[in-house]
Write a structure and sequence with these properties.
260 residues, alpha/beta, 60s Ribosomal Protein L30, Chain: A, Alpha/beta knot, 5-stranded mixed beta sheet, 12 helices, 12 strands, elongated
Length: 260
């Protein structure tokens, strides 16, 4: 096990860095780092070969989870131990486990789209809970990867990582600055899921390898620009007086129809 440096001051630069990474998308982008918090998610990261830049452990966690922390420390560039009360200051949870790792944000531009894959694309999704739920469904049903627009919620925010239960660390995540133009240029056949009675019923669509289903923003749906470049507009027919579905629910139904 590596040696752990001891930090006791709230004014320490690393403590301030962790607080900023927990709270700010801008801080994450500028530093290129994100926070992985909790025993289970750190294990997921380790198993997926995510190298830790820094490991920060509370005094209690050091004793309680010694064997796991030994493995984490071997995967870390630097290791630190801090008092429990100071750990509570940097934690994003109400009942912290005392384990935080900082890691480099993966380079999504290095992830190539598989021309025979099946993807779910989320345009400007704003709710981390929805993104987490979609990612868990996508992994469970065998989707090739998740495509995100850069203006949606940050997949490496603490809330997204926690809501996904580590799924976003395990699945290919592709972030696009201009989703419309990039999907138009891609080899995938694009299906825009919309609320429109004139769109094709999703149950009648024959999804094949090389497909992507697009789900839009919770409030505004899919942009007109993206709908205009989609190969087909599809819809989930609804009974009764329901007018729309939650984005995560619509994504789950779409993924099921695409993958079945």
């Amino acid at each position: 096990m590596k040696n752990f440096k001891v930090i006791t001051s709230r004014e320490n630069s690393l403590i301030k860095l962790v607080c900023s990474l927990q709270a700010s998308n801008k801080a994450r982008k500028e530093s290129g780092l994100f926070v992985i918090e909790g025993l289970r998610i750190c294990k997921d990261a380790l198993e997926n070969s995510i190298r830790f830049d820094k490991l920060i452990i509370s005094n209690t966690a050091y004793e309680k989870h010694f064997n796991d922390i030994e493995l984490f420390s071997d995967n870390s560039n630097e290791c630190y131990k801090i008092p429990d009360n100071l750990f509570k200051k940097i934690s994003d949870t109400s009942s912290p486990q005392g384990i935080i790792a900082l890691a480099e944000i993966p380079d999504s531009t290095a992830v190539e789209i598989d021309s025979k894959g099946r993807y779910i694309a989320l345009e400007n999704l704003s709710d981390p809970t929805n993104l987490g739920a979609v990612s868990r469904t996508a992994e469970a049903l065998g989707v090739s990867g998740i495509i995100l627009s850069s203006k949606g919620c940050d997949p490496y925010s603490p809330k997204c990582i926690r809501a996904s239960m580590g799924t976003l660390l395990r699945m290919p995540v592709i972030i696009l600055d201009n989703m419309a133009s990039r999907l138009k240029e891609s080899p995938l056949k694009t299906f825009a899921c919309v609320v429109d009675k004139d769109a094709d019923d999703i149950k009648t669509v024959d999804f094949k390898d090389g497909s992507v289903v697009i789900i839009g923003n919770e409030a505004n749906g899919i942009s007109e620009e993206l709908k205009s470049v989609a190969d087909r507009c599809i819809t989930i027919k609804m009974a009764g007086r329901a007018e729309s579905l939650n984005a995560a629910v619509a994504a789950a139904i779409s993924i099921w129809e695409m993958m079945k």
